[in-house]
Amino acid sequence: MGKMALQSTVRRKNKMKQGNNLSMPLSRTLKIGGLEAKNRFCIQPMECGNGDLKGGFTKDTLRRYEDLFRGGAGVVVMESVTLQYESRAREHQLLLDVEDLHNRKMWESFVKEMKAKYPDPIFIVQLNHSGELSDTAFSKRVCVKPRKDWGGELLDSAYVDKTIEKFAEAAKFLYEIGCDGVDLKFCHGYLGTQILRPYNDRIWKYGGSWENRSRFAFDMCEKVSKAVNTSKFLIGAKVSLYEGMAGGQGHAGADSKQLNLEETFALCRGLEERGASFFIETLGNAETADWQLMCPNKNTSENVYRHMAMAQNLKRGLRPETTVICGGLSLLAEGRFNENHQISAEKNGLLHWGNYCIEKGSFDMIALGRQSFADPFLPKKYLEGVEKDINWCLCCDGCGGLLAQQKPVECVIYNK
Ligand SMILES: Cc1cc2nc3c(=O)[nH]c(=O)nc-3n(C[C@H](O)[C@H](O)[C@H](O)COP(=O)(O)O)c2cc1C
Ligand code: SF4
């Protein structure tokens, strides 16, 4: 066969292969609130610690989001953004300050440019306050009830009231500049979690009884819903169904490590009643001991199936139209870490499980965390039927190590 004929055959075959996955469950559209996601891939919020010292976007920040917008996912959730510069966990964390004209302009032009170039992905921003995880080397540590080895200045109700107002103002601003939603962070041990934990048994407006501990989350959701009263702007939350530590979110009492999911399910139902249309399932927290519950690696692969089970249970407990997004799946990759020798590796990979669980109705979308560092273009490659080109995350924890060291985060394997 001549060179030209061969090239045309290859092109024809590639063309035939393209779109091969468009009929798969992961490729289906999904209604979330008043919006439509083009497929079932959601990019997790992943802090990159690459802002400038005023919390502004750098070239690295912009490059990362441009890749993610181009990468084909139906939903892109922007990393944890602080609204309080004085209390943050990462020195180079991104800041959203609606009172600062320069900061507003930076956000405005970023969202305008991304939306003009890439109108398809639903773009959501994760809003956060670090609370006791704020690093004392460069910011103020505040807490709801001091913990051994952590401590921090005790918060009062007026401060928390103000924090809720700030979240609502930030959401309104993001709506006005063209974002599609907010992810209110109630996970991984940050302030939202700290308030919700049974450990917060100090009797105050936001502590003690469940009614008091859930007030922060519920009031915030109500205020955001009121500030942005349209189904075209999504309100959702990333929730640690349980943290894995005594007294943590999803545990039975202030000193107990026993699981009790009643409160975390009540949290999600309560948020749903107040306007939340999506939830990102997660487990564990950012403290070293519980990191692997959040980010399973090959020594803790059973945690992946815990994520799937939790997402499925959450889905069953909520309204059918509420979107549940399962996290903690990167380890599955192409089945490389398959420990179940009864099934073949390809039946234990990320794409297989994503399709299977969506088809069964166990959850609605899969979230890509570390996998989105390893390959921001995974959704596009899958939709186009070129899975062979995907760079699979090795779950080596290299990116997590950079975050812990306060260094700019990237994949240390594929971005060498
Ligand atoms: C470097 C790094 C940064 C992260 N930043 C955030 C963040 O900003 N917000 C958040 O909710 N979770 C954050 N996470 C947790 C991930 O979003 C996700 O829940 C976790 O990595 C598990 O998903 P995976 O198995 O797909 O990686 C981070 C994790 C890592 C490793
Ligand atoms: S550094 Fe390791 S864990 Fe992080 S994205 Fe790359 S391969 Fe995955």
Automatic annotation (TrEMBL):
GO terms for molecular function: FMN binding; oxidoreductase activity. InterPro entries: Aldolase_TIM, NADH_flavin_oxidoreductase, OxRdtase_FMN_N. Residues 30-253 form the NADH:flavin oxidoreductase/NADH oxidase N-terminal domain. Gene3D superfamilies: Aldolase class I. Keywords: Flavoprotein, Oxidoreductase. It comes from the Bacteria. Residues 1-21 are annotated as: Disordered. This is 2,4-dienoyl-CoA reductase. It comes from Aminipila luticellarii. The lineage of its organism: Bacteria, Bacillati, Bacillota, Clostridia, Peptostreptococcales.
